[in-house]
Amino acid sequence: MARIDATIGSRNRVHVREGRIRTSTGDPWIEVGQDPVILGRNPACQIVVDDAKVSAVHVEFLATEDGVRVRDLGSRNGTYVGDVRIGEIVLAVAATLRIGTTSIQFEPAGLEKVSVSNIPAFGPLVGQSEGMRHIFDRLGKIAATDLTLLIGGETGCGKELAARAVHDHSKRVDKPFVIVDCGSIPPTLAEATLFGHERGAFTGAIDRHISPFQEADGGTIFLDELGELPLDVQPKLLRALSERRVKSVGGSTYKPFDVRVIAATRRDLVRQVNQGAFRSDLYFRVAQVKVELPALRTRVEDVPLLVRSMLKDLGGERTYEAVTSTQLERLMRYDWPGNVRELRNAVQVAYALHEGGELDIASHLGALTEGGMHHESGAGGPVNLAAAFAGSPFQDAKRDVLARFASDYFTHLAEESSGNVSEMARRAGMERAHVRTYLKRHKIDVRQFR
User: Fold this and answer.
1) Can you list the alpha helix ranges (DSSP code H) found in 116-256?
2) What is the pTM of this model?
């Protein structure tokens, strides 16, 4: 992200190196700022190139603190600087790029001072890093509009929290906020799930199902993991969004709806467009504005503030005094593969097991936090671990606790996810391969939950 302008001495001003680009066809110059400029053959691109060797969405330009970032979007024929094919570079001097048979001229336009909000939170999202404060400011401005929003970011970054916060800060706050998890929809039921179905429309349609677009009428619909939506359903979704109406499977009439659309994905949708896995017209429809939530490992300076906020949510704000500087240093050195969700899981477990003294969050990372929440007894209350393992050597007791926790957690997760491993991975903030490892280790057969 852009660095702080030390000469101004203010935490809410940054310098961004901007630029401008144009093609060899003599098009006007296009300014490159903090909103990405995409070049390709698709008519919705900011710069449209009539070149058969250029992909639908080919290359992206974005101003950063060091210069203009140029990122090839998985194009078929590549992006070149001279004879070198590039994936991603930063340009700070004049240069000529080549895509297909088209040349692109780039000229730097110097530094621009950009204001960054001092607000350390937006809804449940918290952070004092420069990048997060810029996102809070941007989300606040977006919330006041009805523009469609695409939220990107790794699993566990808080995409659903961001979507809900936008809804809560919008004029639609008193209307429904409806979530559709595209990643957990069976492909054969995608159309019926999105648009509704009538009773008897197909085998298994015992009751009538209303479209979530109708349920969210007047409010916001959140299409989570949009990149998982089957390709054959995408044009139907595009039509529904364009016409603002849906027809249920087995129905005969269209029903209008009025919703604000927010989508989220952990995938790079523009690359999926070039791979033929996602429609370019649907991408541009849902990405009128795009916000990318950063991985926690890129903003570790936010860890202390996040820990304090999470403990406050758990009702133990004063417990933050038990988090030592050594603990915080360990947390800030960690790589955070599960992002903020992993930190929240670790804080929950540490707080639940805390019996005085130092609050040891770091020791609950890794195997335990990959599983998720703290363990609770079937009777509805927390397990008294000290009593359960009294007399056992500490390391043996700890190993047994972790094993029981993981077994219980993944069994419960499999049941709630109907045995869908992809959905289990999404909820746990893990890769599917890691989930399968735990399932195999604890002999959990997901087929019994389907």
Assistant:
1) 130-143, 159-168, 190-195, 212-215, 234-243
2) 0.73
